[in-house]
Structure formats: C-alpha cells, structure tokens
Amino acid sequence: MKIVRTLLLILGIFIILFCIFGYIDYNGQKMELGAKQEKHIPSSINTDGGTITLSAVSEKYDKTQFGFFVIQNNSTHTLTIPYENTADHLKDGKWYEVVLNGLEFPDKTITLKPGKSFKLDIATPNYKIGKYRFVQHFRDENGKEHVLAAPFEIVWPSLKNVLGQFD
C-alpha cells in the first residue's frame, strides 16, 4: 500500500511539472509561428493631440503567469481597440507572428477616452520560452489605424512561483 501511494505521489508530481513547463499546452492551444512581421513597431506614438503608449507591466513573465500590458492614452483622441491582440516571437533576429490554433477572440471593442488607460492580458502558458512583443492595433476617432508593441520575455517558472501556487 505504501509503494502504491508513493508511486501515485511521484506520478502526480510528474504530471504537475509536465503541465507547468509547457509540455501539455494550456487550454489545448498549440503555438506555431506564422508570417514574418515588421522589424520595428514602436511602443509609443506622438499624435497631433498627445502621446499614446503601450507597455508591459513586467519585462519578464514565467509560464505560470498571465502577461499584463497597459495602453495609456495621453492624447486628445478617443481610441477604438479591438479585443483581439497578438504577440510576435523573436527567432534568429526576426519577428514572427505567434499563431495559437484554436484560440478565438470575441467580436468586441474597447473605447479608450483621452487621459485614460486600459489593462490587457495574454495567457503566457500558451507560449514557449523566449523573447516576444505584445502587439496591439487600434484606431482613433478619425479612423486612422495605429499599431504599438511592448517587448517582454517568457522564462521558466521560479521555484518560489511554483510552490506558491499550492499554498
């Protein structure tokens, strides 16, 4: 009986570690690389009415966390932001769009008034370890399209984060 309990404990630990380190995809999503993307996408733009900025809340996220990003509208424009957001992966010095098969975004938009900010997120367990940029497209009230990107990195989870999940 003690041997069976020990084997079940070892199997359970193995399955948990297997999930944490990304060998079993979060929500069943499989990360693939799509089309090559623009080399440089700015993280802020100056408009005739002020500055619009996209930034990562943290420069690094581990695979057990969600990545959070803030778009700050310090302009006089009202922005329309689609709920759909994407990420590009840096591979061999080139940016490639990340394609998550099976992931769908709701058909909705967010309106961001002047002087306001909005927090966006992505599920980092869907992504492989490496360097990325969060990419957000949006339009101003005149219909002019803009795109911003915020760099971030996905790293292996620290032991502190892994053990903290079981408190």
UniProtKB/TrEMBL annotation:
<protein>
    <recommendedName>
        <fullName>Bacterial Ig-like domain-containing protein</fullName>
    </recommendedName>
</protein>
<dbReference type="Pfam" id="PF20251">
    <property type="entry name" value="Big_14"/>
</dbReference>
<feature type="domain" description="Bacterial Ig-like">
    <location>
        <begin position="52"/>
        <end position="152"/>
    </location>
</feature>
<dbReference type="InterPro" id="IPR046878">
    <property type="entry name" value="Big_14"/>
</dbReference>
